[in-house]
Design brief:
The complex is a heterodimer of chains A (174) and B (148). Chain A has seven helices and six strands. Chain A is of the alpha+beta class and 174 residues long. In chain A, strands 1-2-6-5-4-3 form a six-stranded antiparallel beta sheet, with helices on both faces. In chain A, strand 3 and strand 4 (112-120) form a beta hairpin. In chain A, helix 4 (58-68) packs antiparallel against helix 6 (148-158). Mean pLDDT of chain A is 78; it is low at 160-167 and 170-174. Chain B has two domains: 3-50, no CATH class; 67-139. In chain B, helix 1 (3-13) packs across helix 2. Chain B has helices spanning 3-13, 19-31, 37-50, 67-93, 100-147. Chain B is built from five helices and no strands. Helix content of chain B is 76%, strand content 0%. Chain B is mostly helical and 148 residues long. Classes of the chains: A alpha+beta (174), B mainly alpha (148).
Chain lengths: 174, 148
Amino acid sequence: MKKGIFFIVLAFLSAGVFAQGEVITSYFNKYADNDAFTKVSVSSKMFSMFTEMEAGTEAEQEFLEAVSKLKGLKMVMADSIADAKALYKKATADVNKAGYAELMTVADPDQSMLFSIKENNGIIEELVMVVGGGNKFVLLSLYGEIDLKNISRIARDMKVQGLEDLGRMHHDKK
Amino acid sequence: MDSRTKLLLEKYWRAETSTAEERLLKEQLGTVQEASAEANYFKAIDRRKQQVSEISFQHPGKRIYYWYVTIAASLVIGLLVGTGLWQRQQSSSEYTVHDPEIALELTRNALLMVSSGLNEGKDLSTYQLNQINKPKEIITNKNNSNIY
């Protein structure tokens, strides 16, 4: 009996481990063969390499600081799909179902955004962003130790509209 | 009761007898005819020992320990966890960027996207707050103009 309880607890624990990046991983699998979707994964090893870099400017410093505590980045995106809005709805539903806490939503006729987080002891362990509208769709998951203040400062420092880089990012991949 | 038994008894009450000595004591006092307190005590113990339960228990039958089921179950669990982990690894590693420069650029863009998204939300909410304050402003202005 005790053994049984132990295994059940173990199963739940392992489910917790799997839950990290659960939604994004399922989207990776879902669109594995669909070339309309660009899939990107940056490993924790790569992030540890970033931390060894020298920062030139203050903005760069801010960026490296935000990055230093990250452990992974995964993205699924598309910029030429027909039903971005429907996909956005589906993705937000999936994110909510997976037990993420909603941080912020921006509902706009052109483009909607959802930010959700997974927290543990007051530390944000995963940040999921879903963007959808027009024919653009982005599902992004950041994990590690996430400092929202730090991240939100990045754009202010660089004074660039991040979403404009979406197209560039698409070409950079290959 | 002979002196040896008495000695043994004394030892018994001091709890110093060995198991063999106790057995001997029980045998001697159990068969003795005299109705001393000690003899009765040991006879009572003897009777208690021979007591048989009035309720009879039936053996549930041959108990088979399915050890192979345990092994099979652990194999299945191990296999499931293993494939799960492998698949996870596989699905991610397929898209992992190996060039540090590209990875950095991607991360920068991704963070910028998140960052500006977060800021846009913030700006929007302050904008909306200002909108909420507008009617109040209009009303207060009107009141002011009414006064003057």
